[in-house]
Amino acid sequence: MSTEEAHTADPGPLLRIVKHQPIAFAIVGVANTVIGYLLFVLWMLILDNEKLYQVALIGAYSVSVLIAFVLHRTLVFRVRGQVARDLAAFVVVNSGGLALNLILATIAVSVFHAPPLPAQAVVMLIVAGVSFFGHRYFSFRRSPTRRA
User: Fold this and answer.
1) Which of 48, 69, 71, 95 is deepest in the core (most CB within 10 A)?
2) Terminal-residue alpha carbon distance, the chain
3) Sequence-ordered list of residues with C-beta below 8 angstroms from that of 129, at least 6 positions apart, any chain
4) How far is CA 113 from CA 18, 72, 105, 107, in A?
């Protein structure tokens, strides 16, 4: 049975409830976004310096990327095997998300003079939307003939 067939045959607990992968991705994405934002706030409190918001952002991403990988792999994309390849691809996509996040947050704070906390909340929503396609078509992609 191919991974695509396994995905259809065993959708996992979240996909059994919501039935649609983009909706499951959004649910996990919202949960991980909340986790990432709370980690960002925590890093901001630890650093105690608003000028270090970029350091706080990198610290939050470093932890939340591992949480997101496990949640998306098990609850949304339901793939098996190739854990190292999937993690590497996931990190590549999330690194692109981190770069986009840093660029947009820097523009929001430096150019538009937005406070870092609300700016990050808006930027994270944009990055989450872009990330779905990267994860669907790169991180957890399986060819129809490839075995799990």
Assistant:
1) 69
2) 8
3) none
4) 40, 34, 10, 8
CA distance 40 to 50: 11
pLDDT in tens, 101-117: 999 999 999 999 999 98
Q: How far apart are CA 57 and CA 83, in angstroms?
A: 26
For the record, the structure tokens of 39 come out as: 């980690």
DSSP string, 31-83: HHHHHHHHHHHHHHHHHT-GGGHHHHHHHHHHHHHHHHHHHIIIIIS---S-H
Q: What b/e readout covers 74-107, taking b as 16+ CB neighbours within 10 angstroms?
A: ebbbbbeeeeeebbebbeebbeebbeebbebbee
Give the position of tokens 């840093």.
102
**Confidence (pTM):** 0.67
Q: In this structure, which amino acid lies at residue 120?
A: Q
DSSP state of 112: S
Task: Please give the Cα distance from 27 to 8 (Å, whole number).
Answer: 19
pLDDT tens-digit series, residues 135-147: 888 888 887 655 4
Neighbours of 68 (CB within 10 A): 25
Q: Which two tokens stand for residue 55?
A: 């350091």
